[in-house]
Design goal:
Length: about 425
Amino acid sequence: MKYGQGPAAAWRTDYPSEVNTEVAPPWASVNFETDPAKYMAAVLSTVRTDFAVKGDLLAPNETRNEWWISPWMDFTNAGRERRMALTNERGPKPGDLSPTSGDDYQVWAVGFYNARGATVLGSIFDDECDPFFPTAVRFPDQTASVKFLFTNASPDEVTYLKGAPEFKAYINPDPVGDRPETRPEKRILGTLRLLQVDVAVKDPRADATDWVFGTFIWRGPARGDKFFDNLVPASLQWGNDPGVYDMGIQQSWINPRLKGVTHGWKERPFLGFNGRANGPADNLRSSCLSCHSTARAPAGHLRQVDGSFDMDRDYYTQAKVKQHVDSWFQNIRGNELFLPTEPVTTNLDYSLQLESSIIRLCNACITGALTGPTPKICRETGFQGRIERVVRVTRSMCTDKASSSRLKTTPFAGFSSEFEALTTIVPPRQ
Ligand code: HEC
């Protein structure tokens, strides 16, 4: 593995320790419930100034980029690829993206925090090799996060992607038979198109969950800058509508103009469960806030909504729907815990990126990519037993870099077969 071999697009990990909070962000004066599209546009206005499309690469705007990525997302089979630092996400099921969209498509994504959020990353990862997680992570108000999701789905099937700019990244080869190939060393340069842009804001007015989550889709035909100018708001959510078992959803907004485009057919009657907010790439049994409200380490007996709720059978059984809604769609504040009676080390305030980074850091430790003392968070969240069994001391990633124990750039393990990622680590977004 080559150290410091960052992605072709050099994303920031130089987390700020302080932020000027005097200037209110542009969305602060917009009501997300009554003016959802305007609220989303205000969030997006802080993103579009900071990112640039350079040929087939999404990159930071060289003169201004105030967005930071999380460390440690490089590891595991779903870890960051080398060109845009994308991680491998849940692949859409047939009929998910459009009435005719097929199987085996891939989704790859990269997520960022704004300066306020990045101060939290900085305080946690001050010692990147032994991060400090408080009992309850607390992102400051007006923390924002943005995530770009790309897919290799065919625009012939997902027609709103027709004319979309093409990006190149190292993705998985097509499956052989029904066996998907996910070993990082087998990745190939493939073509992706922007599918969806997710945003999340810790908004002090969101008193049900503390967070507002929403997503845009890229919709052709291409116009303007062909990137941001094509984004259409698809959904926004400020609560999970707990106890609502029918379609009477009040705490999500769904863009009615996208009926028949993103949802509204047999396999995809809605974006998120019963009309809650979600994106086309997401599991229709879930919602943005549902998945993110589970962020904690270690996970409890329920992790994130998976495919086990049967849309053909369970959906028509009242008791099953009730159980599904009651398990997954609660309104939990940022400082409240999902599954509060189950042992926990750190509550992650809706950040699944932090949850992934813990799993991947500990995975690096297990596989020997990280040597030296086992990080506290891995011991405390129960990775210890497994580490002791399988650790192969190859070299110390954290202490190699002078003795300062602070990594300045994230290593990209994507192409090294030296560290075989454990296959027990599930890719994000089930
Ligand atoms: C099935 C669960 C699931 C659903 C549904 C989901 N996400 Fe996420 N999301 C994840 C995971 C896992 C990550 C972390 C991995 C990553 O960043 O690649 C993540 C990361 C993010 C991030 C980066 C910051 C963070 O909190 O980790 C944002 C922003 C985000 N999602 C927004 C959304 C929005 C908006 C929606 C709905 C449109 C949504 N998500 C739906 C699982 C989910």
